[in-house]
Amino acid sequence: MRKLRYGMIGGGPGSLIGEVHRKAASYHGLSKPVCSVFSRDYEKNLSLALDYGIDEDRVYNDYEELIEKESKRSDKPDFIIIATPNAFHYEIAKKALKNMFHVICDKPVTINSDEAVELRDLAMKNNLLFGVTYAYTGYSMVHQIKKMVLNGNIGEVRYISGRYIQDWMADTENILNNKHANWRLNPKISGPTNSTGDIGTHLENLVSFTTDLKIKKLSARLDKFGDNIKLDNNVTMMVEYDNGAKGHYWISQIAIGHDNDLGIEIVGTKGSIKWQQNRANYIEFSKLNGPSQIISRNSSLIYPEIKKDFLTEGGHPEGYIEAFARTYKNFMHAILRKDYGAEISAGYYPEIDTGIQGVKFIEAAVESSNNNNKWIEI
Ligand SMILES: NC(=O)c1ccc[n+]([C@@H]2O[C@H](COP(=O)([O-])OP(=O)(O)OC[C@H]3O[C@@H](n4cnc5c(N)ncnc54)[C@H](O)[C@@H]3O)[C@@H](O)[C@H]2O)c1
Asked: What region holds the Gfo/Idh/MocA-like oxidoreductase N-terminal domain (predicted)?
């Protein structure tokens, strides 16, 4: 089977996530980039494209030109990666879907849910796949947690505490000089939120994936600490899930002392599970009236089907790139099955419905915060 071909829009030199997408897409040797608008700056786009061996005549000025010209080629890309700031996702994805490309797009998938639903309908109409890179669900141990929860190891879920806290926006006096933060704090490019959409949606997705629970309603306070800060940089939220379980989330980008501190604690009637990204290869599992255990990725308690999918041997750590790569592998396997009849089972990757759920979570949080933290049904 030949390598899949992809075109990439966004993720230029110095971007936060571009290189992660490219490493993840190539990790399993399943794909290679063939055309690009990595940046709106043509020279930057060209220099990176040449590093990747992309032919100069497939380096374009903008996404419209890329999609229009590439859709006419016999060796056109199998899929398009979108890694631009949030507000551009919708137009780019719409054009790619209209021109019959599968799409994998970063989160939040759009800046309002009507746009996200429109993309889902278009993908369905044209029989195309649409992945969303909520890549934290790519960690082996996150899959292990899901299986443990669904197998009843902790009983009925009662309470979930979640946090995604960082400190890179804590210097609020100077933060607007940081190019990665500047657009995130600009409602025209980021959408209605900063932290809620940027990292809160990852937390919402992680909880929903590991527990199969959906948020029924939430009450949120979106704070904007600092002068001239137009969007939230710290969020406090109470949530209620569809099984009646309760929870709370802390989402922050001003939490000094924290890097990418994503963590969950799931408390059930018979036990609890704790996991944090900074110790991604370990789960803490406690039983009612029993001892607490640290389950490592190398442990005999890891389910065989999860072990089978390890990207490094269990005694060595797997990290962020591997989690992202697993998400990409499953998306690309789904393309291989669909378009080429390959006899492979495509594992889990977040699809457009998951993206819609994330955008609805953002909208509910904004509505609640604007209405004295009123409970809002999703
Ligand atoms: N999944 C994750 O874990 C994760 C992590 C970080 C960022 N993100 C998401 O990825 C996206 C990009 O974030 P970032 O931090 O890398 O941004 P960034 O500002 O670091 O980089 C954005 C890149 O996109 C390019 N760009 C902007 N508009 C463009 C356009 N119209 N056409 C082509 N290129 C364009 C810029 O030149 C730049 O190279 C955002 O949606 C963000 O929410 C996801």
From this structure: 4-134
Fold of 4-132: Rossmann fold (3.40.50)
Q: What is the DSSP letter of 57?
A: G
pLDDT at 2: 85
Q: Average of pLDDT values for 186-204?
A: 98
| pLDDT confidence tier of residue 346, bands split at 50, 70 and 90 | confident
Q: What is the mean pLDDT of the chain?
A: 97
Q: Positive or negative CA dihedral for 356, 359, 364, 365?
A: positive
CB-CB contact of 187 with 230 (8 Å): yes
Write down the residue that tokens 């939040």 correspond to: 108
Homologous superfamily assigned to 138-314+357-377? Dihydrodipicolinate Reductase; domain 2 (3.30.360.10)
199 CA distance to ligand 1 middle (Å): 14
Pocket test for ligand 1, best of 9, 15, 328 (most atoms within 8 A of CB): 15
Q: What is the pLDDT of residues 108-140, one digit of tens each?
A: 999 999 999 999 999 999 999 999 999 999 999
Domain ranges across the chain: 4-132, 138-314+357-377
Task: Compute CA distances 291 → 21, 186, 294, whole Å.
Answer: 40, 48, 10
Task: Tell me the best of 9, 16, 194 to mutate to test the pocket of ligand 1, counting ligand atoms within 8 Å of each CB and taking the most.
Answer: 16
Site residues for ligand 1, CB cut-off 6 Å:
9-12, 15-18, 37, 39-40, 63, 83-86, 88, 106-107, 133, 135, 179-180, 183, 198
pLDDT in tens, 281-298: 999 999 999 999 999 999
**pLDDT at 1 (0 to 100):** 73
